[in-house]
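Mods, move this if it's the wrong board.
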Amino acid sequence: MEDRAMRKCFAILAAAALPLAACGEAEKSVDYYLKHLDEAREKTARCQSNGDAGVNCGNAAVAIKRNAEEQFKRERARTEKNLKNGSIWPTWNGK
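Not the wrong board. Structure tokens:
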């Protein structure tokens, strides 16, 4: 009989905990944070100050890192293009 009462108590506690678990912030994807970089920066700052490690904190950090990598690749491609066509080197006649 105790086993049955324990199961019933566990079922009631589990049902009561479900609404509390759903109260958290909606999960946002890495793509969302890539489109909203200011929000991603704010989120990571809040996560670092609070010591939080939720899914949104990780997605925001990944989005910031991915954006930095993409920007670096664009800058490197632009520099390589300028090196190949010679526009990176100064000229004496101002051209």
